[in-house]
Design a protein that fits this description.
Helix content is about 25%, strand content about 20%. It is an alpha+beta fold and about 500 residues long. The protein has two domains: about 220 residues, D-Maltodextrin-Binding Protein, domain 2, CATH 3.40.190.10; about 210 residues, Dipeptide-binding Protein, domain 3 (Roll), CATH 3.10.105. The strands form four sheets. Strands 1, 8, 9, 10, 11, 12, 13, 14, 15, 16 and 17 form an eleven-stranded mixed beta sheet that branches. Helix 9 links the parallel strand 14 and strand 15.
């Protein structure tokens, strides 16, 4: 699947001093130094692709965590279904499917092998999906979903407790990747040498690096590059510097502050379904009071944050769903709002993380705005791996998060449920509201199409009416690609990056 790319020119600023990260990509056994002309079997010129990524693994690259999206971006692990540009389901490891009430039957592709040489079968699909469905916590794509999986000859049947129109889209989530039996031998799930993609994950160096080699037995055809060398570089300035110094071929998530320092021809800006939101703790502390949540909403000046922090490379939010979903604006109506109350010096703590370089600056801007409104504000900024558990446990009065809104299923109903349902697994706001839950349940049960889109916007309105979340802006992906990189993906969903077609000249 090839997602369309939208290229938006970025203005270049005067050159700045370049950080030299000598040795950042050194040490690989195969460093991509070959300059051959190809072998006639899909290889381009023998060079390995060097990638600088933002977030290091949080769960040892377990596919049951957000690390699954790294496996997907490296084309190491695959799912039964993929999504096209509109979010509609397309065949991948499954060749097709049909629905009969609560049961969906998926045909499994023949001739597919895992990286350890074992064959993809209906039983291996059942094993992977059952492990995900019974995990604790579940992958968020299965929030509120009870399903059972069984083999039926060469097919697999998936049965849900309630009729679910989104089963194919759910199965496209990288967190439901299909892996070989070897991946499940321990207490944790290890994807090393266990995927089906064109690249095999061969080595993981903690949170510093990963190595992938071309898998010549790939069912979709031999990859053009012999492998991928990944370095995790959380610092945005250092990450952008790897492109300027020639040490990386692909740099994901270039910070806004660094984009102008790069050659504009090497930078691609892609609108994406990602919202920068201020989540307010509705269960404990000052923001248990709806009137104080309203006061916080009125104090936030998102336009000044877009101009000052993002240098205009973001869109002011009108709701939780942004311009990457163009139908949302046309359906949205003004939400009902609670009358605000004076903060009168109420003390609040706002948490966020520096992994996305702009967030600490956003936090500082919000601190000033909320203090001007009458709050006393303290900031707590820690790396995401060290702060996520506290955020989910409700340890903050407010939390700033850059959140993808259709990351998992291509449908925003799953994100809304995960973040705002009383039983949602990512409910940072600790929200428990009967009207919100009812609206979310309705959206989840509505068939795909215009009716579902309307019910999704109704659910968004129910959430906004609580002021449990204050959407501020919608981000854009800024990605840096060296001049010699060919056919790298620019994916607004952040699922694809290096594919079988990607290579370095």
């Amino acid at each position: 699947m090839r997602l369309p790319t939208r290229l938006l020119p970025l203005s270049a600023a005067t050159a700045a001093s370049t950080l030299l990260l000598t040795g950042c990509f050194s040490g690989s056994a195969t460093d991509g130094s070959s300059n051959g002309e190809g072998d006639g079997n899909g290889a381009a010129d023998g060079k390995r692709v060097r990638v600088a990524m933002m977030n290091p693994p949080r769960s040892g690259l377990s596919p049951l965590s957000d690390d699954a999206f790294k496996l997907s971006r490296w084309s190491a692990a695959e799912t039964l279904v993929t999504l096209d540009a509109d979010g509609d389901a397309e065949p991948a490891l499954a060749t097709g499917w049909q629905q009969d009430g609560r049961t969906w039957t998926f045909g499994i592709r023949e001739g597919v092998t895992f990286h350890d040489g074992t064959r993809l079968t209906a039983e291996s699909v059942v094993r992977s999906l059952t492990r995900a469905a019974t995990a604790s916590p579940k992958p968020r794509i299965l929030d509120g979903v009870e399903l059972t999986v069984r083999a039926d000859g060469d097919s697999v049947t998936v049965t849900t407790a309630d009729e679910d129109p989104l089963v194919p889209q759910r199965l496209s989530s990288p967190q439901l990747s299909i892996l070989a039996a070897k991946a499940y031998r321990g207490k944790t799930v290890s994807p090393v040498g266990a995927g089906t993609g064109p690249f095999e994950l061969t080595k993981v160096n903690g949170t510093s690096s990963a190595t992938l080699d071309r898998y010549d037995g790939y069912w979709g055809g031999r990859a053009k590059s012999p492998g991928i060398d990944v370095k995790f570089v959380p610092d945005g300035t250092a990450r952008a510097a790897t492109l300027r110094s020639g040490e990386a071929d692909i740099v994901e998530a270039v910070p806004v502050s660094q984009a102008a320092l790069l050659d504009e021809e090497l930078v691609t800006e892609v609108p994406m379904p990602r919202t920068n939101t201020l989540y307010l703790n509705t269960a404990d502390g000052p923001f248990e009071d709806a009137a104080l949540r309203a006061a916080a909403r009125e104090a936030v000046d998102a336009e000044s944050i877009v101009k000052g922090v993002y240098e205009g490379r973001a869109d002011v939010a009108k709701g939780l769903l942004g311009p990457a979903l163009p139908w949302a604006a046309g359906l949205r109506k003004p939400a009902e709002r609670v009358k605000s109350a004076a903060p009168e010096g109420k003390k609040i703590t706002i948490g966020t993380f520096p992994d996305r370089a702009e967030l600490p600056e956003v936090a500082q801007a919000l601190q000033q705005q909320l203090q001007k409104a009458g709050f006393e504000v303290k900031l707590d900024v820690r790396e995401y791996a060290n702060i996520e558990s506290d955020a989910l446990a409700g340890e903050f009065d407010a939390f700033i998060l850059s959140r993808a809104t259709i990351l998992d299923s291509g449908d925003p109903a799953a994100y809304l449920y995960s973040d705002f349902a009383a039983e949602g697994s990512f409910n940072i706001s600790q929200l428990s509201d009967e009207k919100v839950d009812a609206a979310l349940d309705k959206a989840a049960g509505t068939r795909t199409g215009d009716a579902r889109r309307r019910s999704v916007i109704d659910a968004e309105a129910a959430v906004l009416a609580t002021d449990a979340a204050i959407p501020m802006l919608h981000e854009r992906v800024i990605q840096g690609d060296a001049a010699g990189v060919v056919d790298v993906e620019h994916d607004p969903r952040e699922r694809a990056l290096v594919t079988a077609d990607t290579y370095v000249k």
